[in-house]
Amino acid sequence: MSKYVLIGSAGSGSVIIELALTRAQAPYVLEQIPYLEPGPDRERLLELNPLGQVPTLIMPNGDVLTESAAIILHLADAYPDAELTPSGNDPRRSQFLRWLLYIVGAIYPVSTFGDDPARWDLDDDNQKLFRKSLERYRLSLWKNVEEVADAPWFLGENFSAIDLYLAVMRNWRPGRSEYARHFPKLSAIADNVSDDLALAAILKRDY
Ligand SMILES: N[C@@H](CCC(=O)N[C@@H](CS)C(=O)NCC(=O)O)C(=O)O
């Protein structure tokens, strides 16, 4: 059987997709690369994805899919039993889409922009200032998510892929304990993801 090929990197956003593929029991192989390092792996990544970003997914038919939200929506269609998204007529679907896009459109880039502040042509002092102000901004963005989070999952009784984003992104800057201090509801949801042992094993490997 053909498999998905997930191009990713330890601890990065590709872990969100690895969790989704695992939950869907979709066949995949993981190719971990140092995505920011110049070299043949990065050259290949840039050929597949002009942004040079992970996750990048090669589908069983050879098509390339990038953008984690697009990958999640594709997997939800291909593997409905995984319940990655509320179904089409579920009233929670609109809020799912709203907050999925908020997380990938507003919060995720703030992390990506701060990963390598040198790329913005700033001197050392300004890189530090830039990173600090991104960190403040990111906290204000997550606060909006915390305010609307339900329990035990973000959408309430039903799991969705948003919970996978929380389980991964709480490990990024400012770090897990600081995140828990600011966002106890989101951290509790992230903890619940580890009730699934297969998902827990992936999270434990990387964080
Ligand atoms: N919108 C993309 C963002 C992906 C992204 O920013 N990935 C980071 C790693 S976590 C990356 O590849 N950064 C390298 C770069 O942007 O040059 C998604 O949701 O998949």
Can you describe this structure in just a few lines?
By secondary structure, the protein is α+β, with helices and mostly antiparallel strands.
Description of the structure:
Pfam families: GST_N_2. This is GST-like protein. InterPro entries: Glutathione-S-Trfase_C_sf, Glutathione_S-Trfase, Glutathione_S-Trfase_N, Thioredoxin-like_sf. By secondary structure, this protein is α+β, with helices and mostly antiparallel strands. It has two domains: 79 residues, Glutaredoxin (3-Layer(aba) Sandwich); 103 residues, Up-down Bundle (Glutathione S-transferase Yfyf (Class Pi), Chain A, domain 2), CATH 1.20.1050.10. Helices cover 56% and strands 8% of the residues. Strands 2-1-3-4 form a four-stranded mixed β-sheet, with helices on one face. The longest helix is centred in the middle third of the chain and has 25 residues. The protein is globular. 30% of the residues are buried. The model has no long low-confidence stretch (mean pLDDT 97). Glutathione binds next to α3 and α4.
Write down the overall mean pLDDT. 97
Low-confidence spans: none
- The helical percent reads 55-70%
The main sheet orders its strands as: 2-1-3-4
* Largest beta-sheet characterization: 4 strands, mixed
Distance between the termini: 31 Å
What small ligands are held by the chains? glutathione
Percent of residues in β-strands:
5-15%
CATH topology of the largest domain: Glutathione S-transferase Yfyf (Class Pi), Chain A, domain 2
Dominant shape: globular
Strands, total number: 4
Number of domains: 2
Order of helices and strands: EHEHEEHHHHHHH
CATH architecture of the largest domain: Up-down Bundle
The helix/strand class is alpha+beta
What's the CATH first level of the largest domain? Mainly Alpha
SS summary, helix count: 9
Radius of gyration (CA) equals 17 Å
Domain GST N-terminal: 1-83
Pfam families: GST_N_2 (PF13409)
Protein name: GST-like protein
